[in-house]
Design a protein that fits this description.
This protein is α+β, with helices and mostly antiparallel strands and 373 residues long. It is built from eleven helices and 14 strands. The chain is 27% helix and 22% strand.
Length: 373
């Protein structure tokens, strides 16, 4: 039986957000997405955290999410994800899910129609869009629209890193995974070590690119699915973790980055959130490094500059097209910090045993039906 989508205003929706970890070296974007929603004056709804580990802080922090649930790891596949979400939907109404991790997107795409039958909305790219922005396909994409990007080599054998004098590869190079992690390496031993480290966590192939010296500038925005870019917010990294994630950054007004990003979104006809990572070299030229198919971990800066993109996503899903956003501002700084969160042993045991952080209030479980994959 199909559950009709209720005519509830977006400001009162229940929004489930994945990627709720808060690891200092590589935080999940979901924690920041949830903060954007919880701190938006116009949003009166609820936020539910969806995580993959009992220690994901966003599952326990009641200032970030109203309650939390564990999901099966993305490697378990779409059927396992649907079974778990179907169980959750039997307990609580969810109007929107915002996936925030690259590795889970294909599973959500596979079950999108099933979620729609349960009244759950999503705004995200399709499989073709995802494939077109894969790291190893960026050179073809950028050549078609005249944007610079480093060449990219798919590597499965660590012997690749023994560059000879006649090789057109020279150190330093960047070694990165298909989904996550990127390291600048300066010699073959370091390259092989990072190669095995990334392969052990994310599998093959490993990607290798020439290192481009310069400053990192990133942009986040929403694609409307028709080629339009909504609500662009850009920043320059001021401090990074070992994994290159922004620990501090400052908002910028960068016409060159905005123009390049608009061309990319138009070429892909991108739908949903994205992050565009670039380097500006010493000559001032922009080089595209990655296109991430979700909000970045620094998305809270969009709230800080008055262009709250998670809220704009809800407005798009509600059918609004004339979304009023403040003009972009330069000079707003964010600084990430770590904070202790106190969790009772009973609460930890509860989510470990039941996969749920707090009991669901009875009024949220009314009028729900189930479907099968």
């Amino acid at each position: 039986m199909t559950t009709p989508i209720p005519m509830t205003p977006w400001s009162q929706w229940t929004v489930a957000v994945t990627g709720m970890n808060a690891r200092p070296d590589n935080p999940g974007p979901g924690y920041a997405v949830a903060r954007c929603l919880e701190e938006a004056p116009e949003f009166k709804g609820r936020v539910i955290g969806l995580g993959y580990d009992v220690l994901d802080a966003g599952l326990h922090h009641r200032g970030v999410s109203d309650n939390g649930y564990l999901l099966p790891y993305p490697s378990s596949g779409a059927a396992a994800l649907w079974d778990r979400l179907s169980d959750i939907l039997d307990q609580v109404r969810i109007d929107v899910i915002i996936p925030c991790l690259d590795s889970e997107l294909l599973n959500f795409i596979a079950i999108k129609d099933n979620l729609a039958k349960r009244g759950v909305r999503l705004l995200m790219p399709d499989k073709a869009m995802l494939a077109a922005r894969n790291k190893d396909r960026l050179p073809d994409l950028c050549a078609a629209i005249d944007i610079k990007t480093p060449r990219c080599e798919r590597v499965t054998d660590p012997a690749f890193f023994d560059f000879g004098q006649d090789s057109d590869w020279h150190y330093p190079v960047v070694v990165k995974g298909v989904f996550y992690d990127a390291y600048v390496v300066h010699g073959p031993e370091e390259a092989r070590m990072r190669f095995h480290q990334i392969a052990a966590q994310w599998g093959y192939p490993i990607l290798v690119q020439p290192f481009v010296a310069g400053e990192e500038y990133n942009l986040t925005a929403l694609g409307d699915g028709q080629g339009g870019m909504i609500g662009a917010v850009s920043m320059r990294k001021r401090a990074v973790t070992e994994k290159g994630k922004a620990w501090a950054g400052i908002s910028t007004l960068d016409p060159q980055l905005q123009e390049a990003s608009a061309k990319l979104i138009a070429a892909l006809k991108w739908q949903g959130p994205l992050e565009i990572e670039t380097l500006r070299d010493h000559d001032g030229a922009i080089h595209l490094i990655e296109i991430n198919p979700r909000f970045p971990a620094w998305i809270y800066l969009s709230h800080g500059v008055g262009r709250n993109l998670p809220v704009a996503l809800l407005q798009l899903l509600a059918g609004e097209r004339d979304i009023a956003l403040k003009p972009a501002e330069a000079g707003t700084l964010f600084i990430r910090y770590a904070q202790d969160l106190i969790v009772t042993l009973d609460a930890l045991a509860g989510i470990t045993m039941d996969g749920q952080s707090v009991p669901v209030p009875p009024y949220l479980a009314s009028g729900l039906t189930s479907t099968s994959l």
